[in-house]
Amino acid sequence: MLRGRKSGPPSSFRRRRAHKVAPRAQGAISMKRSAVMAGAALGVVLAFGAMGGATASDLPSPATAFAQPIGSDYFLADYTAYEAYLKALAAKSDRMKLVDIGKTEEGRTQWMAIVSSPANLAKLEQYRTIARKLAKAEGVSEAEARKLAAEGKAVVWIDAGLHANETVTSQGQLQVIHQMLTATDAETQRFLDDCIILFAHDNPDGMEMISDWYMRHEDPKKREFGSLPRLYHKYIGHDNNRDSFMSAMAETTNINRQLFREWFPQIVYNQHQTAPNGMVVFVPPFRDPANHNYDPLVMTMLQEVGMAMHSRLVAEDKPGTGARSAAPYSTWHNGMERSIAYFHNSIGLLTEIAGGPTPTTINLVPEVQLPSNDRPAPIAPQTWRLQQTLDYQASLNRSVLDYASRNRERLLFNIWKMGDNGIKRGGRDTWTITPTKVEALIAAGKEKPLAGARGGSADPSLYKTIMQAPEQRDPRGFILPADQADMPTVVAFLNALIKAGVDVEVADKAFTVAGKTYPAGSYVVRTAQAYRPHVMDMFEPQDHPHDTEYPGGPPKAPYDVTGYTLAYQMGVKFDRVLDAFEAPTKRVPDLIKVAPGSVKGAGGAGWLISHETNASFTLTNRLLKAGAKVQWVKEGTKAGGTTFGPGAIWVPASPAAKAVIDKGVKELGVDAFAVAAKPAGATIALKPIRIGLVDVYGGSMPSGWNRWMFEQFEAPFQVVYPQRLDAGDIGKDFDVLVFADGVVPAPADGPFRAGRGGPQPKAEDIPAEYRSWLGRVTDEKTVPKIAEFVKGGGTVVAIGASTRLATALGAPVEVATAKTENGQLKAFSNRELYIPGAVLRAKVDPKQPLAYGAGDEVDVFFDRSPAFTVKPDVKGVSRVAWFDSDKPLRSGWAVGQEKLKGSTAMLDIDIGKGKVFAFGPEITQRAQSWGTFKFLFNGLLYGPAVSKK
């Protein structure tokens, strides 16, 4: 019998006692526990392995194979039991193949169960090849596409557990897989014959963690997981469904490989759990806006599948569904698992369902009781139990498979059609219709209406002049020069594209396009490829419509962010090519390795290293760890024929430094210039640093992203919680404190977005090892201790809304993104200023140490962020970056953006003997904004270096 954990402290949490970075060790500890727990399943696995030939009825049932039946109230199986159960099924079922798709961030195996008929499983590679040919469309004619579509099988991805606290999806998947392996009815046989189903688990670590935390109490009525001490993903919690186009996390990379590089499913069904109030489940279609880059066919087919899902539930007397206006979900943002599918010509589905292991209630909401197109069958209020949710979930799964089975050839042909459309559009002049162009057309139409036509009709000649202006053509491709300053970051950007299935090319010799010569090693990304929508979305600005609650009304909040152009956020340099072009390129076969750097020159005094590469921060950390001396040269300097901007890294010669540099330049792709004499001019001597990364009980996602970044760039840090700050004497343990966006609470109606809130558990209700994590950053207790730390020579780095610390510590600055009402500082209304996640352009002073390595402009991610004005005639405050335009918007949506003109985005503030660095924009946004990482990296080193303590 497969036993889910019944009681006692979850051992998968014990490793969290030590906050110091040891990522692989953490994963190893978890894996030890998994091996032990899997032992409880060994009897079942061996028993079924010993059978000569199991029948469907012999397969272990989720009703009997676990400590309690799956679907029982107050019970959750964990991933250890889940994994053992899948292995037991795969050992004997001829309808299932279990595939290891990679390791998680904590080192667990991420499994995918491929389910189909025995005949199909025998020819899996053949069907996968067909799926790939049709999805990529390259070199496939319409006649061949129709032939392949007739021969192939529909590929459907159905996952579970992405958000681990949405527990029903993982538990329900166990039942659905068993049904598909054992059922003998005609419908199930048709599904198996027509489809290849990829049942995947998205977050094994989270399932283990949540299930074990829930089951720790013997008393079922005490079971809950709202008091979980940390995020349910090692680093990023809920944001694991915002990582799809960046693919920073191991699990996302594993998933994207299956979706866009291995199996190319035509349907991607991502299951979630939070129904609209008074309903059982949200089911597509979604509300507007729709992104302007993807093929319209993907949206029309999405509507078909969504309505089929509603219809099946209604036909089975399962009321309580909602669509479109019933919830805020849209199809705009590319970062989610189901939404990235649209940019790859796949039908992305999201359901959000009610329920959980603890019985809940479907509330009575009068407004949703009247049937409508978006709420076809209202449900009566009632107590709701887990198995009811799993029954709905099974019906939804079957409705998707039914659609795929009945429309097998259409799905296969249409994914080819959309891919072929992308290839053709990328090879000719095309124009993307955007809200800005439509607004211009409306304005021109008022000046030039079509005489005698219905109201609102404009002269058709305007279509050519406005909607198809030659200079506004879509690019045929993008060229990334190999001679730009930070090529390791360029490689990181291109690898994000490759992980998402985009074709990238590299030039083997120099070439010229549109009068500009590019060196060998430059990269080309053509838009003439099947995944053209994704290419466009990563390079081109998002032009979000002015979406209001009603005509003339306030802005309607988007679902997530509005502008996120990855090329802008990462600060890579590229050229848009509008005409057809040739280049001596070959396709990159897999992820790109950073080209090794080298030591140039033979001087013996030391080495000069550019500050412009993010990788130079990793090298600096290694040097300081080895005890080598490192300095920043304040003014620009030269080494041979190479010019360095302010902040060049100077490393005096020493055996320790030489060992680090010789190895590091090769690994990191950084060049070091050996020179005969120390460069002239003043320098800033760096020191080894002790970073305190502030987190809160339950976990902060922005802090988690920063933790991941610090590990990648080898920064020495410890996680620190408010209780430790409140205890004072912070400088004994730390030189720098980093407060990520939202870690510092703020009043709800003030100019700073409120941080992570919600109740925390009583200390006696959680294991002793987590009690020191409880508490919050408060003005009454914490801020005075932080003030002592800074005035005594410490450094505070505050990001986003946590820049409230600057004003709380008495910095001589004022909040520019606010107004005063009745003597109180209040946020602007959404009608006055509303920038809900967009990319803006800021001016930079690259001579400021915080900006070393940056240019004189930078793209910043701004999400209802604060900006500041410096009080007149003050000393000790330096503007590092600011908004000098009344139109700083680069990508996304910005209401009232003109109010930012003249305001300061980044500040260097002296307080006592220490420093406060206030970064209003989210300079580490979801580990996407590599173009602004160096502001944080500089702050970590610069503050302690100039501390007067």
Structure notes:
With 949 residues, the chain is of the alpha+beta class. Helices cover 31% and strands 19% of the residues. The protein contains 26 helices and 41 strands. Strands 28, 29, 30, 31, 35, 36, 38, 39, 40 and 41 form a ten-stranded mixed beta sheet that branches. Strands 1-2-4-3-5-10-6-8 form an eight-stranded mixed beta sheet, with helices on both faces. Helix 5 (124-136) runs parallel beside helix 14 (408-426). The longest helix has 21 residues, at 386-406. Residues 1-53 have low confidence and may be disordered.
What is the number of E strands?
41
What is the mean predicted local confidence, pLDDT? 93
First-to-last CA distance: 62 Å
As residue ranges, the low-confidence spans are 1-53
**Overall 3D form:** globular
What Rg do the Cα atoms give? 29 Å
The biggest sheet, with number of strands, parallel, antiparallel or mixed sense and barrel status, is: 10 strands, mixed
Structural class: alpha+beta
The number of helical runs is 26
What is the helix content?
A: 25-40%
Estimate what percentage of residues fall within beta strands.
15-25%
